[in-house]
Write a structure and sequence with these properties.
Blueprint (H helix, E strand, L loop, with lengths): L6 H37 L10 H13 L14 E4 L14 H11 L8 H12 L10 H12 L5 H12 L6 E2 L9 H12 L3 E9 H8 L10 E10 L18 E9 L4 H10 L6 E4 L5 H8 L7 E6 L10 H13 L3 E4 H4 L9 E2 L5 H4 L9
Parallel strand pairs: 1-3, 1-6, 3-4, 6-7, 7-8
Antiparallel strand pairs: 2-9, 4-5
Helix pairs in contact: 3-4, 6-8
Length: 377
């Protein structure tokens, strides 16, 4: 028999072929819809997290509980305050040190428009030479704060923001596929967005310079300037000179400039002080990564009229980031004993910075900051 030789056979074949194509199309659509549904379930709102992360489960249960008006733990929106440390909690601090330190080292050692004195130059070299092995002196926090205040003194707020931005555009040392300005933890960005969607007011409370934080966060997190707390220096009018602020009248020829007078380094108890003064409400959620955040955490979870919680992020991922697994695990045990919920970068983050960002395992820190400068006379 000659297949499909007659008109009826050809007609039947065309009908069967059309039916097969329609069935295949419908199967494809159903399959695509199922895949899309699976993706939506997985992607929103925590696609960058491993879905079995204990801390994530705790956070979701907490939020669902305190936002349920029928719950005895309900918190009115006006009291839903969440505070976040920045470096090491929202963004990288290990490439190979705080981004703020990279910008300061560049200012001292590489900026042709800035002439450091002998003390500043000595500090800049120490900042560079001890970053990779983390062998900074015990009083590094205050050394950094006082030298940063001095290094940027005389800059207007716009000049400082532009300066910081120009360096945030440089490739993040130790990685490929990421600039410094993008060095935020993708899972933690999702936490901030999740809380904001549930009517939490999110504040950053960082030991980093407040103006630096504002510039760094812009474009990465939708947190307004007035909700960003950080280290502060005294500001003055550009034409003020030695005139006291109680005597000087700001004019249209003025702009606000930074001075070298440090007001507050917002670490440890100073974070609590800043929160009390600037927010005026006790947080119900707190996120950090170090001992500098413990006072902020304790202020959140102790003697709170509302159900509250504190979370500590540990840098235990040595494959995708520059963490120290053994040290981080020890800290994790310490934080759990203190009553904090521990977030493991290694176990809980599906991605850290993004799928296209790779750890290189090598730093160009010393060559990038190599200099041959003489101190200002």
């Amino acid at each position: 028999m000659k297949p499909f030789s007659s008109g009826k056979a050809k007609g039947l074949w065309v009908f069967l072929l059309a039916a097969m194509l329609m069935l295949t199309s419908m199967t494809t659509i159903v399959s695509a819809q199922e895949t899309e549904a699976d993706q939506i379930e997985y992607e929103e709102p925590f696609s960058e997290w491993n879905q079995d992360a204990p801390a994530l489960k705790t956070l979701i249960e907490y939020v669902e509980n305190v936002t349920d008006e029928s719950s005895p733990d309900f918190i009115p929106p006006m009291d839903r305050i969440a505070t976040f440390d920045m470096d090491g909690t929202l963004c990288a601090e290990l490439c190979p040190t705080y981004v703020e330190n990279f910008v300061l080292a560049w200012r001292i050692l590489k900026d042709e428009n800035y002439q450091p004195d002998e003390d500043m130059l000595e500090f800049g070299r120490m900042l560079r030479d001890h970053a990779v092995d983390k062998s900074y002196p015990d009083d590094m926090d205050m050394l950094q704060a006082t030298h940063a205040a001095k290094a940027y003194s005389g800059m207007s707020l716009n000049e400082f923001a532009d300066y910081v931005t120009s360096l945030l555009l440089k490739d993040a040392d130790g990685f490929e596929g990421m600039i410094y300005g993008e060095a935020f933890f993708a899972p933690m960005i999702q936490v901030v967005e999740y809380l904001q969607e549930n009517d939490f007011k999110v504040y950053i409370c960082s030991g980093t310079d407040r103006s630096f934080c504002r510039t760094f966060v812009e474009g990465m997190l939708d947190i307004p300037y007035e909700q960003i707390i950080g280290m502060d220096v005294m500001m003055e009018a550009s034409n003020q000179g030695d005139t006291d602020g109680l005597e000087y009248l700001y004019t249209k020829e003025d702009q606000i400039i930074r001075t070298d007078q440090l007001i507050l380094k917002t670490l440890k108890m100073n974070k609590v002080r800043a929160i009390v003064q600037e927010i005026g409400r006790q947080p119900v959620l707190s996120f950090g990564n170090s001992s500098g955040d413990c006072s902020m955490h304790n202020y959140t979870i102790f003697n709170n009229r509302y159900k509250s919680a504190a979370f500590m992020l540990i840098a235990d991922d040595e494959e995708r980031d520059y963490g120290n697994t053994e040290k981080a695990r020890e800290l994790g045990e310490k934080w759990e004993e203190a009553g904090y919920h521990v977030i493991s970068m290694k176990d809980d983050f599906r991605n850290i910075y993004g799928e296209n960002v790779k750890k290189t395992g090598t730093f160009h820190w010393f060559e990038n900051l190599a200099e041959n400068r003489e101190p200002a006379v």
